[in-house]
Design goal:
- This protein is α/β, with parallel strands linked by helices.
- 43% of the residues lie in helices and 18% in strands.
- Strands 1, 2, 3, 4, 5, 6, 7, 8, 9 and 10 form a 10-stranded mixed sheet that branches.
- Helix 9 crosses helix 14.
């Protein structure tokens, strides 16, 4: 083999040749990754929430931010980027530098429902986002205006079958759990109820309380007190069995309806990062999140907001769950004939 004249060898190629002949295979890259992880974080972290202030993801984000700040010694700034059912905030993280300084804290709808709801997303969940850790889960509560003459889901189904198309239900946006849970309930029971989507939960809540709409799936934290005060009726929780946070309200599986024996839906809150974030940084964040969730303080503070702290999960566990739930909701939306949306 002839020698290549030195002027034609770039500095980059010379460096690569030196690393291959002088260092153990991969030692340079491994050392660089370790050094980067050891220095992390060296500046403030942005924790992007793709929903408005006060939403479930926002509440969890602010609790986690306190812990990360105390552990890492760097500010953790929660930034709300709401809109398009979480697409705007998720896209901001998907396109952010993959250095661990821009993270996504979201409910699962953003990553398991939106891919089947929108004709085209500006990002790909599997390609552009990396799971870090699941933080908590909770069912929703199906609530109704007090004037609606039903006390539970079985009575609701019977009423709607006698009065098809006369009731409306609110949601806090297309693709939200308030939307898809009701579509699953409608498809399972054959009910005809008109959807009234809102841009956020506060307006939907207000119209439900005012009697402008009849029904809504809402978070336990938002609805339980209103039910206790008699301002709304609690018809069922979305899980198969009743929740310890609402023991007086039956689960869907307790309705006595054969069509709902398999109805069991909860949603989760999780932490994600841009896909190319170094594995060492993802591991560091995962370890810290799981350590926080094992503390009594975290469990108590989440429980106060009707959220069950997640068991320790790995990024791989979360990735598998996202894949399975994406397939599940794709089938639900297709079977329910939910119209695809434009971003």
């Amino acid at each position: 083999m002839r020698n290549i004249p030195l002027p034609f060898i770039s500095r980059r190629r010379l460096l690569a040749r030196w690393m291959l002949t002088t260092l153990p295979l991969g030692a340079g890259l491994l050392g660089s990754a370790r050094a980067h992880a050891a220095a992390y974080p060296s500046r403030p972290i942005r924790l992007i929430v793709p929903f408005s202030t006060g939403a479930t993801a926002d509440i969890v984000a602010r609790l986690l931010a306190e812990r990360l700040h105390a552990s890492f010694g760097q500010p953790v700034v929660v930034e709300n980027k709401s809109g398009a059912g979480g697409v705007i905030g998720a896209d901001a993280v998907a396109k952010a530098p993959a250095d661990g300084y821009t993270l996504l804290l979201t409910t699962s709808s953003t990553v398991v429902i939106n891919p089947s709801l929108y004709k085209k997303l500006p990002y790909d969940v599997a390609r552009d986002l990396a799971p870090v850790a699941q933080l908590g889960s909770l069912p929703a509560l199906l609530v109704a205006t007090p004037s609606l003459p039903v006390r539970n889901v079985a009575e609701l189904v019977a009423y709607v079958r006698k009065n098809p198309g006369k009731l409306t239900y609110a949601s806090n946006g297309l693709g939200s759990y308030a939307h898809v849970m009701m579509e699953l309930l409608k498809h399972s029971t054959g009910m005809e109820i008109e959807h009234v989507p809102y841009r956020g939960g506060s307006q939907a809540d207000s119209d439900l309380l005012a009697g402008n709409v009849h029904l809504m799936f809402n978070s336990l934290a938002a609805a339980a007190q209103l039910v206790a005060a008699g301002r709304l009726k609690g018809l069922a929780v979305s899980s198969a069995q009743r929740s310890p946070f609402a023991p007086g309200i039956a689960g869907m599986g307790e309705s006595g309806l054969a069509e709902l024996k398999d109805y069991d839906v909860s949603y989760w809150v999780g932490l994600m990062a841009p896909a190319a974030t170094p594995a060492a940084i993802v591991h560091s964040l995962n370890t810290e999140a799981n350590a926080w969730l094992r503390t009594d303080q975290a469990r108590e503070r989440l429980s106060a907001r009707k959220i069950v702290a997640a068991p320790s999960t790995s990024p791989e566990d979360m990735k598998d769950q996202i894949r399975a739930e994406m397939a599940y909701w794709a089938k639900v939306l297709k079977d329910s004939k939910v119209e695809l949306q434009s971003y």
